[in-house]
User: Fold these one by one.
Assistant:
Number 1:
Amino acid sequence: MGRLTSTINAVEARGQKSLVAYIVAGDPHPDQTVDLMHALVVEGVDIIELGVPFTDPEAEGPVIQLAHERALVHQVTLLKVLEMVAAFRLEDAETPVVLMGYLNPIEAMGYEAFAEQASLSGVDGLITVNLPPEEAGPLAMALQEKEIDPIYLLAPTTTDARAVAVCQASRGFVYYVSLKGTTGSGSLDIKAVCERVAHLKAKTPLPLFVGFGIKDGATAAPIAEVADGVVVGSAIVTLMGEFEASPQALKLAVIELVRDIRTALNASNP
């Protein structure tokens, strides 16, 4: 059993729901990323989702696009992201780290080379936004050999037949994108999301996590009533831009936000 599955199981055994926090590696500065990862864990984050900076992040809204740009100013490459994970692992051997990004840098490195280096660095899972499971065979095989979980996305428009196929291809958990459009767009129709999640959960034994649109404790708690976990991304990344010039103020703001969400999740699942 990998670190991702064992962590999710442990959270469930405590009667809680998993909290996943997304940040872009190197945003707002590479020197801050590992420290922020540790701060997230201290405040109750169960899984860290680390965005790999890319020049054309087509699934992202303006907030996360700007985060990619801020990281790329500092030449944060895929290799540098893996170095950050390795540095995080020097002090934390327990918290799962999932990379989220686009196929292009991985393809440039080579699937086997990437899987090897990711494994050595301590990566537990991979979300490749622009690679559907139908086309992921070679990469999925390379990941499987290194016990790295491929995680795929479900959307509000995903048909039932395709949802089954996506769930079968996923490992660790399945990621439900609760909004149509890019990250940070629109506001959640909580009732509709809960109904859709309940429907999808019947199609897979894997945990189902919900992301896109989780902004605070008030939005996280009702979703967690039906989902196995929530992913908060744009709300955290917004703070990266607002407090770019003040690392200490940024850290405090991130801590306050994550603490609010963790508290809400615990209160709704005592």
Number 2:
Amino acid sequence: MQQPFDNLARAYDTWYDTPRGRQIFEAELKCLQQICPACQGRWLEIGVGTGRFASRLGIREGLDPSPGMLELACSRGITTSLGSAEKLPFEENTFDGILMAFTLCFIQHPEKVFRQCRSVLKPDGQLLVGLIPADSPWGKLYQEKKNQGHPIYSHARFLTSDRILAIAQETGFQLKQTACTLFGKPDDLPQADPNIAPGISEQAGFAALRFSKTSQME
């Protein structure tokens, strides 16, 4: 079955090579690295897309429902799995860490995905999440693009950082560290040396959150 992103895979990936795309990506990447300098052990990116984040962060495995996206991720040296975040095709206690960068805004049931992550993570496993907060200027702009029928954002459902924090706590995760970036106006070209700040700001277009798996769920 063809996925919505199959026909958009190459155009989506090429955007990262534009001046704007490159600087936004580098800011988001540095923000993730600020709270997770090294992805040690066996890591998986859920919603790996074309593998841009995984390859730069040293993550060697990725899962995505789009064969078109996975073809490009594979070309970046990622070992790929075709599948759904709501039903991960892995055994329990498999991974040391999981990355989800922008994945949650394309998920219908984020609570189910968090539970799936908890299942396949080892007892001391880490969960690294990157998102565009719905209540940020960037989130509001992308919501407008969604309403206008944007080919990618029309499939998205943006969530607030508070909502992600609540879901994580309900599903057996403890927040360890946060950082944020992209403080400029959404239409401006980000600075070459981006400001990465600790915590979560309503003015930041990107937030990174690192969780650890707890011993039990609420």
Number 3:
Amino acid sequence: MQPHTRRHRAPLRQKTPERVPRGLPDGLFDELFAAMGSDRDRALLAFYVSTGARASELLGVTLERVDIGSQLIAVERKGSGRLQWLPASADAFVWLGLYEAHQPRPEDETALWLTRRAPHRPLTYAAMRRVLQRANDGLGTSWTLHQLRHTAAQRMVADPTMSLIDVQWVLGHAHLATTEIYLQPRPDEVVARVLEHHRRRAAAPPPPPSGAYRPEVLATLLGDAAGG
């Protein structure tokens, strides 16, 4: 029954870090996409930012888990191991078709993503990370594969036609609180909106001086007497 007293955090108790999404703005993502050196890599980036799948989940997709007609691709969820079909963008499937048209494939190989050089084996996480590192070296950036998942999540959250429950389902989060971190706006977006707010205010006509009535207002209030 004693009143609550605020105390300092214990010396050995770790402070919980604030989780901030780190998605790529559209312009910077376009630069990264243009730096990709093959149709396979462009297809992978398109799937990452349209499905929100984790890097390892997408790399584990097999041929029978692609439904082009329904625009779906199935991933095995990390942790639970359950299979989930995810919708992807039409552009992702276009790049996938270009990749498959020129990709040599061993007869019994079922992995969707393969190495470009022989012997053609399933593409690993380390190899895909190296693809991104080469693009970063050319652009002078340090983007990661996981940031592509953040990008997908932030794009979906920004769409007013999608609910937070929809985004939770696509990302495969067990708890809605995990999805809610993507509600935090990026600083560059906030700055852009505030600057636009200032530009709108600067362009608006100034209000009439107080104490003075415009002629049309007097005509409305007093009728013909004001005009005569």
Number 4:
Amino acid sequence: MMPISVEDLKKSYAGAPAVAGLSFQVQAGETYALLGPNGAGKTTTIEILEGYRKRDGGTVEVLGEDPGKDGSGLRAKIGIVLQSTALEPELTVAETVANFRSFYPKPHGVDEVLDLVDLSFARDTRVKALSGGQQRRLEIGLGLIGNPDLIFLDEPTTGLDPDARRNIWSLVLELNSMGKTILLSSHYMDEVEALAHRIAVLVAGQLKAEGTPQALRDQHGGYTEVRFYLGERTLPETFPAALRSIIHQERGWVIFEVPNPTPFLADLTNWSFKEQFELPHLNVTQPSLEEIYLNLTRGRRGAARAAKPVEA
């Protein structure tokens, strides 16, 4: 059984389609990142999966159940961590978790959850006294207290400092190691790359691209950047004309954008070795996940830099 299975999902508002024939599946034990710009249908899709919004058409199964029907049984098996949660500031951490625990038929223990989210030391601390990172860990703990098989995790690190963000990442990875399935929504591409097994990019209510981070690079990256530092030097006349024609320059760097780096690097390094011309700081990089995401959502590949000839 797939934790999430969506087939030809449709939803419109006032006749305007928000989700237009969306299909995807989430496998057990994976973190699946659902991404998209504002208006792409991401929030609508997640709310339909959670059982809080009715669909107009298509088939949806969450943990083998239709979330559009009576969702009380389903909600006992899922955990939802919203982007922010209004908590009672005067309650202690332990009291807050115990209160949420009472909503579920087979919950974790309070101390078990506090240990999992690394808040045992703060069990008697009032919510209002928690730092931003501690409160976010508490909110994730509240999403876990019901012992869910599937967790909806919405923007888990928005507004947190780098150290707190990494702590949340470690927690998500630990949840994965426990076999939990996670549907992640985030605007931070470094976070998505660190946590997601697979990524889906929504545009105008449809699936624009799907795959692992590396698969998206392979399918939609389009080019690889090769660069080395020339500084104040100039290239000798023996530098191959075919390579010279695709050069551009930035602050002393010689930069190439090529679709297939392997034969290009062979030509470049063979020439360098033959001419004994050093290529300082030679590095090879693919487009970042953020660049690929922006290109997909804008409907084009990022504009390549105009080539600038480098004088011999």
